[in-house]
Design brief:
Elements (H helix, E strand, L loop, with lengths): L4 H11 L4 H8 L3 H9 L5 H11 L11 H53 L2
């Protein structure tokens, strides 16, 4: 999938009525550099992040359907699923420990009660 990111940025700027001078000022670059960016099919990732923030638009979405992002997304999903499973298991273990602690507390209270009854007779 070939994306001319400069063109996509320019379209979003036009929709939001933002000029080249405005984007240049926001990015703290010259108007010439801003125009070069808009004419370019590629862009530095950090610049794209800043442009996305300035225009309040996710320009990375144009790339998300690509193979690289799909693989990364799938790997991240597997990692997150494994982490969720691990946390669920820890939660189950914690709940079991709490149940055992509660039973132990009841037994201790019962033992104390029996000892007190025996002591005060």
């Amino acid at each position: 999938m070939s994306v001319h990111i400069g063109l996509m940025i320019w379209k979003e700027m036009k929709q939001k009525d933002i000029s080249v001078s405005d984007i240049a000022a926001a990015l703290e670059i010259s108007k010439t550099k801003a125009q070069e960016m808009l004419n370019s099919a590629t862009i530095d990732i950090l610049t794209l992040v800043r442009v996305s923030e300035i225009l309040n638009y996710n320009f990375f979405s144009y790339y998300e359907s690509g193979k690289v992002f799909s693989k990364i997304e799938l790997q991240e999903k597997h990692k997150l699923t494994a982490e969720v499973d691990r946390l669920k298991a820890l939660l189950n273990e914690k709940n079991k420990a709490l149940e055992l602690q509660e039973r132990l507390n009841k037994i201790q209270l019962s033992t104390i009660s029996l000892l007190e009854k025996g002591q005060f007779r």
